Amino acid sequence: MKQDKNPKLILFSILLLLLLSYPLITVANKAALVWGLPALYLYIFMVWIIAIAVIYSITAQQYKEPDE
Amino acid sequence: MNNIIAIISALLYLALLFGVAYYAEYRQRKGHSVINNGYVYALSLAVYCTAWTYYGSVGRAATNGPEFLTIYLGPTIAAVLFWPVLRKIIRICKTQRINSIADLISTRYGKNFSIAVVVTILCVLGVIPYIALQLKAISNSIHVLGANNMAEVGLGSFLQDDTFYITAVLSVFIILFGTRSIDASEKHEGLVAAVAFESIIKLVAFLAAGIFVVYGLFNGFGDVFTKAMASPQLKQLFQLGNNTSYATWLGLMMVSMLAVVFLPRQFQVSVVENMQEKHLNRAAWLFPLYLLLINVFVLPIALGGKLVFGGSGVDADTFVLALPLHFGQSWLGLLVFIGGFSAATSMIIVETIALSTMMSNNILTPLFLSAKKFKPVADGTLSSSILNIRRFSIVLILALAYVYDKTIAQYFSLVSIGLVSFAAVAQFAPAVLGGIYWKGASKNGAMAGICTGFVVWFFTLVIPSMVSAKILDESIMTQGLFGIGWLKPFSLFGIEGMDSITHSVFWSLLVNITTFVVVSLNTKQQAQEIYQAEIFVDIFKHSATPDSNTVWKGTAYLPDLHSLLENFLGPQRAQKILNNYALRNKIPLDTKRADPRLVSFAEKVLAGVIGSASARIMVSSVTKEEELKIDEVINILRESQQMMELNRELKKKSIELQKATQQLTLVNEQLKEMDSMKDEFLYTVTHELRTPITSIRAMAEIVYDNDDMDEEQRQTFLGNIIKETERLSHLITQVLNLERYESGRQKLNLTPVLINNLLSEGIEALQPLADEKKASLELQLPDTMFIVRCDADLLQQVMYNLLSNAIKFVEPATGLVKVSVHTNHDDIQIWVDDNGRGIPSGLNELIFDKFFQAKNQTLKKPQGSGLGLAICKKIVEMHNGKIWVESEEDKGSRFIFTLPNS
C-alpha cells in the first residue's frame, strides 16, 4: 500500500526547527567542554546527525511516488 | 611558491573540468547518462557551498563563533521539506517547461511579462555581487599562495590580473557547455557532471586541510578545544550571544532555508537540471550529510589559525590556506587552493547559466524580437541569434561581476556579500510558495509584494554598502533618509538590536508578505491567471492527464504555427516535434486550421526556448486569439474536473467488470468440470448396468436354447437370473437415490430420534446377513440416551450400507463387526469397526467416490454397486455431519460418521 510520507516530513521539519532555535538551544549554550568538545557544537552536530538519520529512514522507506 | 604555479594549476584544473564535461556529454550521446542518479543530483546541490563556505566560514567562525552554522542548518531543515515542497515545484516546471525562477513566477501569474522582468532585475542585482565575491576569493587565494601582499590591481590594468584570464576561460567553458541546445529547459549534462565533480574536489580538499590542522598541528579535536578554552577570548567562540543574538540565529537560519531553494543556481540544479523526482529522496539526506562534513573542521581551523597566528594580522578568511603554507606544506596548500578554486568556479558556472537564461529570455530576446519587428521567416537564423544572445548574456554577467569585484567588493568580507544575496532571493518566497499553495494569489499581489520587498531590501542593505563604498554620503546612515529619524537603513522605525541582515530580512519579508496578501485579496484575477493558479496548485491532479484541458480560444493556422516553430528550432526539429505530438494525440495535420491543443503545445515548446511570457507573445503574434472570459475559463476547468471524475469512474467500473469476468470464468470452469463429471458418471452407470444384463441374457439364452436341460440345472440358471435382476434393480435404486440427494430434491424429514434405537434397529436388520457369514455383530451403547434431530430412514440406510460393507469384507467365522457411540461437546460420533482386510493407505478418501470400486478393478475382488459409500457421504453431509475412515491394511478399518449434537 502506498503511504504518504509528507505529513511525517513536515512534522519533522518543525521539530528540527524547534530543536535548533531558542529556547531549546540554550540547553547547550555555555562556554564549556563536554567530552572534550564545546557543549553547543556537540549538541548541534548530534541533532544534525540524528536529523540525517531520520530523513534517511523516512525517505528510503519507499521509493515509489504517491499520487496526490 | 609563486603566482605562476597557482595560475597554471588553476588552468590545468579547468582543462580537467572540460574533460569531465566532455566525457559526460559523450556518455549521454551513448545513452548512458552519468548524471541520472540520486548521488550526482545530491552532489550537484552542493554547489550551495561556494568559496564563501570554503574560506568565509572560517573567517566568520573566528569572530562570531557558531553563527556560521546557521547557513547550513537552514538548508538541512529545507532538505526535510524537499519531498513535500520542492517536488511540487519540479513537477510544475517539468509540465510547463519552465527554465528559471523568473519564468516560474511569471508563468504562475498569467504569464505576465513585467513580473518576469522585475524578478530578473532583482536576481541580477542581488546575485552579481555574489559572483564577484567568488572572483575575489579566487584572486585572494592566488595571492596567499604566491605569498605576495594583497596588492589589489585596479580596473585599469586588468591585463595584468590573473582573475581576468580565469574569468575569460570560465566564460568559454560556460558558453561551450551551457548553450548547446536552444531549449533552455533541456538538461546541461556536461555542466552538471562538472559541478558534481567539483563538489567532490572541494570536500576532499577541505577535509584534508582540516585533518592536517587537527591531527598535524594539534593532537586531535580535544587538544584544539582545550587550548582554545585556556584563552578567554577564544573561549567566547564556543557559544552564542557574543556577537549573535537568538533573533539573528533564527533569522539567518530561515533566510538560508529559503536561499537553498530560491537562489538562481540552486533553482537551476535542483529544479531545472533534475532528471527524476525520486532523486529528491536520496538528496534529502545526502545533501545535509555533505553540509555536515564540510563544516566539521571549520571551528577547529578557525581556532587553530587564531592560536598559531595570534594577532599577527593574517586574515581569518584565509586560514585554511595560510595554515598549511605557514608550516611548509606547499603541496597541501596547492590542493587546498584547488579546492577553493573548485568551490568558486562551480558557483560561477551554475549561477551564470541561471542568470543568463533569465536575462536573455526576459530582457534581451524580447528587446531583440521587438526591434526586429518579428516576421515569420523560416530561415532558422533566429535560433542561432537567440543562442548568441544567451552567449552575450553570459559574457555580460561575468563582466559585470568582474567589474564589481575590482571596484566595490574590496570593502566587504566574504560572508556579508553572500548574505545580501540571500536576503534578495528570499523576496521570491511569498510569490512562489503562495503561488503553488494558494489559488487566490494574484499577479498584482505578487508584483506589489516583490517590489516593496525589493525596495526595503535595497534600502536596508544596498544603500549602506554604497555608503561604505563612499558612493553615498554617510549622513543617511546616521540621520536617516531625507533626515527622517525613523528611516535609518539599519534601524527602521527606530527598532534596534538586530544585525543588519536579520533587520533587513525581517522588514522586507514582513512588508512583502503583507502587501502580497492584502493586494491579492483585493484584486480580481484575469482569466489566464485563474487558469494558471488552478494548474499550479493542483499540479498533481493535472499532470496525470496532460493537455486534457487546453485553455485557448481563437483562430490559428497551421502553416503560421509551423513557421513560427521553424524560426526558433529550425525546419527539421520543428517538423519532428509537431509530427510526434500530433501522432500521440491523434490530431490531423492536413487541415489548415490548427487544433487548440497544437497551439498550446507550440507555446510550451517555445517557453522552453525563450521563456513563457515571450512565448505567449510570439504565439499570439501569429494567431488570432479571442480574449477568454472568466466564466469560460471556469467552465473549462470544471469540464476537465468532470472529465477527471469520469475517468476515475470509468476506471472503477472497468475494475469491477474485470472482477465479474474473473468470477464468470471461474464458474464456467466449474460447470465444465461438472459436465465432464456427469459424462463420466453416465458412462460408469451404463457400464455397470451392462454387466448384469449381459449375464442375464446369456443365462436366459442357455435356458431357451436347451430344452433338454435337466430341471435342477434350469432352476440354478433361473435363480441366477433372478439374483442378477435384483442386483440390477438395486443398482438402479441407488443411482436414483444418489441423483435425488445430489440434486437436492430429497427433503430431510427431521424428527427427534434416539440414537440407541437407530443403531439397534440397524444391527437387527443386518443380523441375518452376519449369521449367514458366521460373523458376529456387536453393539456398544452408551449409558446416556442421545436424541438427534435427523431423518431416521436415511440414517438407517447409512447404517445399512456401512454394516453390510463391513460384513462383506470380514473373514467368515472370525469376522467381528462392532458399532459404538462416542461423544464430545460438539457432535456425536458413530464408529463402525471391523477386523477385515482394511483399506490400502492413500485410498481413505477416494473410496467415498462414486463407482470407485468399479474404476479400480485391480483391487481385491469387487463387490457391490460402488455407490454405497457415496450415498452415505451424501446423507451425512446433508445432516451437516462428516464421514471418514481410519484404517490399516490387514488390520481392519473403522468408519466414523458424526452428527451434530442438538
The structural class of chain A is: mainly alpha
Biggest sheet overview of chain A:
2 strands, antiparallel
Percent range of helical residues of chain B: 55-70%
- The percentage of residues in β strands of chain A lies in 5-15%
Largest sheet: number of strands, sense, barrel closure of chain B: 5 strands, mixed
Keywords:
heterodimer; A: 68 residues; mainly alpha; B: 902 residues; five-stranded mixed sheet; two-stranded antiparallel sheet; 35 helices; 6% strand
What's a quick, concise take on this entry?
By secondary structure, chain A is mainly alpha-helical.
Structural features, described:
The complex is a heterodimer of chains A (68) and B (902). With 68 residues, chain A is mostly helical. Chain A has two helices and two strands; from the N terminus they run αββα. Chain A has helices at 6-19, 39-59, and strands spanning 33-34, 37-38. In chain A, strands 1-2 form a two-stranded antiparallel sheet. The two termini of chain A are 14 Å apart. Residues 63-68 of chain A have low confidence and may be disordered. With 902 residues, chain B is mainly alpha-helical. Helices cover 68% and strands 6% of the residues of chain B. Chain B contains 35 helices and eleven strands. In chain B, the strands form four sheets. Chain B has a five-stranded mixed beta sheet. Chain B has a two-stranded antiparallel sheet with strand order 1-2. In chain B, strands 3-4 form a two-stranded antiparallel sheet. The longest helix of chain B is centred in the C-terminal third of the chain and has 76 residues, at 630-705. The radius of gyration of chain B is 47 Å and the shape is elongated. Chain A binds chain B through residues 5-6, 9-10, 12-13, 16-17, 20-22, 25, 29-33, 36-41, 44-45, 48-49, 51-53, 55-56, 59-60, 63, 65, 67-68, and chain B through 66, 69, 73, 76-77, 79-81, 83-84, 221-222, 225-226, 229, 235-236, 238-241, 246, 249-250, 253, 277-278, 280-282, 284-285, 288-289, 292, 296, 299, 540-541, 544.
